[in-house]
Amino acid sequence: MVTSWEVESLRSQLADAAAGRRFLLQGGDCAERFQDCESPAITRKLKILLQMSLVLVYGSRKPVIRVGRFCGQYAKPRSEAFETREGKVLPAYRGDLINHPEFTDRGRLPDPELLLRGYERAALTLNFIRALVKGGFADLHHPEYWDLDFVQQSPLASEYYAMLHSVVESLQFMENVLGLHPAEMERVDFFTSHEGLHLRYEEAQTRRPPRRERWYNLCTHFPWIGMRTADPDGAHVEYFRGIANPVGVKVGPAMTPEKLVRLIELLDPDGEPGRLTLIHRFGREAVEACLPPLIRAARSTGRAVLWCCDPMHGNTRLTAAGVKTRHFTDILRELELAFDLHAACGSRLGGVHLELTGENVTECLGGARNLNDEDLVRAYESEVDPRLNHEQALEIAMLIARRMRNGPA
Ligand code: PEP
Ligand code: CO
């Protein structure tokens, strides 16, 4: 699905992000669904990531690395092995790569054929994304190609278009006045990522390409190790140790400085720039206590890791009706604290990792339209974690951009 050249190019871009020369935007569904492998849904996913990245370019005044949680984000770790409904107990849904969300004996039975169906859909999705990007869809001269209808009616519209015009004007200045025509302006890159959870799936697509010394996972550019499988002595770390791709590790409240140092030494023995991204996800309540000791521990290893904040997974809660949700305010607050804490520790937040969709779902509370508990029933589609809808996703990007441009409010 991908080549080692692309993987190496991403690694060097991530090295730039670790050094403060780029910013990483990683986002997409918590779990992709096979049924969403169709052009309108894929197009909307690209559109929202493009819009967000443009806003982040404006805010950070840096190139943005766009990484989708797509083309293979099909396997889910679960906290509970079983699910109970009205007294009936069945195995949990573990993503379309493993079984089905339907709450029946048959639906929850793991089916190895799904590994093949997942690979096909991942490849189809990536093929369509490559075609769109190559065909000029992502051309910065034509942001109207990736306008999402909702923006015009949104309370965010005027600020978004102001940011857009500022970027387009700079582009025109560069081209018309300075005579520069960087190819990057017409063809932006998208990279793929997913949690490397199902080791059989990952291993089957791991190769040593011709003229390369090392092994590459060629079913994604950027696999990450989830929080539940980040055991230094576990199988996942052992597999990731053997591949040359840049890798991410989710870092949650259970991570200790000692364990983090071991992980860094195992996964990045040579201190290779861009190799390791630490994606922290503590929740707004815990981030202040958890993050600084880990920043110090990582620094003690002498490695230039890239720090990225996932403000989603530590902020999940249940509504009174038992629906899994996240509040926009908590997500934003964790992000703001992450920027502040890194700055206070002499470190740098180099990216964000978000669960979002290009659709108008109602899964997270708050945001510009202040969605409440009752709104959640309207368009709640995720089978796993609640995602920011297109408007909330753009709003988060705009708030990050404002913050990067102006510093703390
Ligand atoms: C996820 O990213 O969907 C996920 C399960 O995250 P974590 O491993 O951080 O809980
Ligand atoms: Co999730």
Tags for this model:
409 residues, eight-stranded parallel beta barrel, alpha/beta, TIM Barrel, two-stranded antiparallel sheet, binds phosphoenolpyruvate, binds cobalt (II) ion
Present as ligands are: phosphoenolpyruvate, cobalt (II) ion
Return the average pLDDT rounded to an integer: 94
CATH topology type: TIM Barrel
Helix content: 25-40%
Strand fraction band? 5-15%
Largest sheet: 8 strands, parallel, barrel
Number of strands: 14
Task: Report the CATH C-level class.
Answer: Alpha Beta
Order of helices and strands: HEHEEEHHHEHEEEHEHEHEEEHEH
Shape label = globular
CATH 4th-level superfamily: Aldolase class I
**Total helical elements:** 11
Rg, Cα atoms, Å: 20 Å
**Biggest sheet: strand arrangement:** 1-2-5-8-9-10-11-14
Structural class: alpha/beta
Compute the separation of the termini in Å. 43 Å
Provide the domain count. Answer: 1
Low-confidence stretches: none
CATH architecture: Alpha-Beta Barrel
Can you put this structure into words, describing what you see?
The chain is of the alpha/beta class and 409 residues long. It has helices spanning 4-18, 39-60, 113-134, 150-153, 157-177, 199-204, 235-241, 257-267, 287-300, 328-344, 390-406; strands spanning 23-28, 64-69, 82-85, 88-91, 191-195, 206-207, 216-217, 222-225, 247-251, 276-280, 306-309, 317-318, 324-325, 349-355. It is globular, with a radius of gyration of 20 Å. Bound molecules: phosphoenolpyruvate and cobalt (II) ion. Cobalt (II) ion binds at residues 30, 313, 355, 384-385.
